[in-house]
Amino acid sequence: MVEIETPAIVTETGAILLGEFISVDGHHPRRKIRVVTHIHEDHIRGLGRSIRESDFIAATPLTLDLLDVMGHKIPPMKRLEMPYNVRVRIEDDILRLLRARHIPGAAEVLVELGNGLTVGYTGDFKLPGTDIMRELDVLVIDATYGLEEHTRPWQEEMEYLLADIVREGLMQGPVHLYAYNGKVEEVMIILRRFDIDAPFIVSTRTYRLARIMCKHGYCIDNIYTYRSKAAEEAAREGYYIRFHHYSSWWRYGRNGQGTHILLTGWELREPYRRLSPREWIVSFSDHADFRQLISYVEEAKPKMLLVDAYRGGRAAYFFADYVSKRLGIKAAAMP
Question: pTM surpassing 0.85?
């Protein structure tokens, strides 16, 4: 771990420590509060231990409900619901969650420490649509795509392009979309916003997550589980969109009828590539690319930047060095 004096730390286990009382997206002993920014696996590790040992588990109401569906049972007395911009006092510190554009329910974390310093963590995000935490004493940033070559100049247009590709596929039969959990729900919302009305066929777990999202204003209609009668009827008609986990692209092959589309943030050469008449790779990410990371830091102007290397790896170290040399902001990667 980098040895520097700072009121924010990224630990070897991926916990983001903000001040003395708050741990974010990882467990740390004797922390009163465990904050969960969103439901992706690398941000909920150690949650079972935090539920046992921390006083409260804090997150947006949607994230807490999604965690429950995923099997993370948080006792009611430990459940701290925090809508965006609500201020909660923890000893002498003030905790707030801000809106992050990533997956539904995702949040940034801002803490005003009792000694007058301000610290924050972006979690995963992309622009536009994420609140900018300005002029903090220490900002911890996600930099999954922190290398200069991690640039997708088409990123702001990808929702339109994806909708067009799906429409083209539906004209020829069913469409199969392959994506990680969380991104699936985001894409369903996007496709409905572009008036794509084909039935969505999903796993039981995804169906339950979608029902929870509807309680919080993210309603997705015409959605059915794989084995439901409605799904069987849609299959007979050949007009539907079936969602698969990202890993199924390789694990089970693409032998089903229709168009198959893999969504990945690691396609950096082109907005999309057509592998065959019925197979596409689409450059779709819910993370900021290098350009957006720089834009965030330039607007935020923190006194010090820490880059999350637990999740970002070598890209985090490059990004910290780039910010230090090119932007003149003190920066380091941790751990």
Answer: yes
Total residues found in the chain within this entry: 335
Q: What Rg do the C-alpha atoms of the chain give, in angstroms?
A: 21
Fold of 8-149+288-334: Metallo-beta-lactamase; Chain A (3.60.15)
End-to-end Cα distance, the chain: 4
Q: Could you say which DSSP state residue 294 is in?
A: H
Of 18, 186, 20, 42, which Cα lies nearest the Cα of 108?
Answer: 18
pLDDT digits (tens, 9 = 90+) for 154-200: 998 999 999 999 999 999 999 999 998 888 999 999 999 999 999 99
Contacts 24+ apart (CB under 8 A), 70-75: 70/39, 70/205, 70/209, 72/44, 72/47, 72/48, 75/51
Strand partners, 226: none
| Averaged confidence pLDDT in the chain | 94
| Cα distances (Å, whole numbers) of residue 282 to 164, 260, 277, 293 | 12, 10, 14, 21
| CATH 3.40.50-classified regions of the chain | 155-283
Label residue 2 by pLDDT band (50, 70, 90).
very low
